[in-house]
Amino acid sequence: MSAQNSQGIQTLLNAEQEAQKIVQKARAYRVQRVKDARAEAQKEIEEYRQKKEEEFKKFEAEHSGINAQAEKDAEKEIEGKLKEIDEAGKKNRAQVIEDLIKAVTTVDPKPHINSKHK
């Protein structure tokens, strides 16, 4: 009977070794699949990033022209306003100088409204 037990034990050991090989192959396969999935995900992420960067550059190029035109329009408007102010200053310069001289030279002493005059 010991030969049968020995043969049975050997069969069990062989089956266990086969099972370990199968488990080891399954683990290696799973590890490889995880690596492949990560590589594929990284590739997709990079493609998506490049796509979005291209979209952003296109958007930026389209709208930078609008901004440049808006800046030019604003500059023209500012120049127009400055000319109006300059012309108004030249037109009223004599009157302003006269009013300033009059205000400085004309003395009209009055007590301050908060002073207590007795």
UniProtKB/TrEMBL annotation:
What stretch or stretches form a coiled coil here?
A: 12-91
**GO MF entries:** ATP hydrolysis activity; proton-transporting ATPase activity, rotational mechanism
Superkingdom, natural source: Eukaryota
Q: Which InterPro entries match?
A: V-ATPase_G
Pfam families for the chain: V-ATPase_G (PF03179)
Q: Which UniProt keywords apply?
A: Coiled coil, Hydrogen ion transport, Ion transport, Transport
* GO terms under cellular component: vacuolar proton-transporting V-type ATPase, V1 domain
Keyword Transport present in the record's keywords: the answer is yes
Membership in a protein family: Belongs to the V-ATPase G subunit family.
Q: What role is this protein assigned? A: Subunit of the V1 complex of vacuolar(H+)-ATPase (V-ATPase), a multisubunit enzyme composed of a peripheral complex (V1) that hydrolyzes ATP and a membrane integral complex (V0) that translocates protons. V-ATPase is responsible for acidifying and maintaining the pH of intracellular compartments and in some cell types, is targeted to the plasma membrane, where it is responsible for acidifying the extracellular environment.
How does this protein assemble? V-ATPase is a heteromultimeric enzyme made up of two complexes: the ATP-hydrolytic V1 complex and the proton translocation V0 complex.
Q: What is this protein called?
A: V-type proton ATPase subunit G
Protein species of origin:
Arthrobotrys flagrans
